[in-house]
Amino acid sequence: MAEISAIEWTDATVNFWWGCTNVSPGCDNCYAETWNAFRGTGEWGPGAARRPIKGSAALLRKLQSSAPAFESLHGRPRRVFMQSLSDTFDNEVEDVWRMAVFSGIEAADRIRVQLLTKRIGNVEKMVLDTWRNGGWPRHVGLMITVVNQREASRDIPKLIALKKRLGIPWIGLSIEPMLEPIDISKWAADLDWIIVGGESGKNARPMHPAWVAQVQQACQRAGTAFFFKQWGEWLPEGEAPFETFAELRRKRAERVELHADPNPFASVRFDTRTMYRAGKKTSGKLLNGSVSQAFPKELAA
Fold it and tell me: Which option is the CATH number for 12-300: 1.20.120, 1.10.1060, 1.10.1420, 3.20.20?
């Protein structure tokens, strides 16, 4: 929880509790779960007691009271990511905790709230009655995490339907980590924002450039804001200056060959890229030599 966040697509994070349960292949190397395991306090997994975090409501009030100063300095509202260490719509969290989140959000109308969930099916039944009945706050958007085609096909239609039914001002996808090619073309025009990012850490899985390009091109055709966060642990050959790869080869950095088509039964491999374990800092966020980090209009002004 921080008044200033290192997450590239937000300005601050607020967490009312700590802990979650894995529900997706994208959770396999969860940074929050790894941190929790290191601390050894056991708030992760089915049946594990979540732990409330003191000071969250006070921080949200502080972000609200300091909003005019932030807007004067930056020329836009502050973006605040709720529950970066958990999921607001976790089934194993007491409703009274969730109500505290929603009440705090409602009062903080000078900031732009970013809700992110892997449990889109729980959203409508868990939000406040007023949110369900035409009163969804205009300063609150909703994103879902999808990491493969199965999740995209299952959950994106639910998200779009919720936007229309509840009057959500903007919706988006966090494709982090991107684990395979995902065709979002038939939904892109109904989405306001798509974030794509590779995985970090020692067990990180690589992301092929062709997968990223497919999503970026769909966003360009639909006029949807596209945000490329990072390559993560693995850097594709050609996505950094020559000197970077020369140094990686000199150091004998680990390499893998990654196919654009992950199907193990594919008879022909047309696009195979060498991926270097370069680390998040070296891999960076350049896509085709430039930074592509757009925001939807609701978060940009």
Answer: 3.20.20
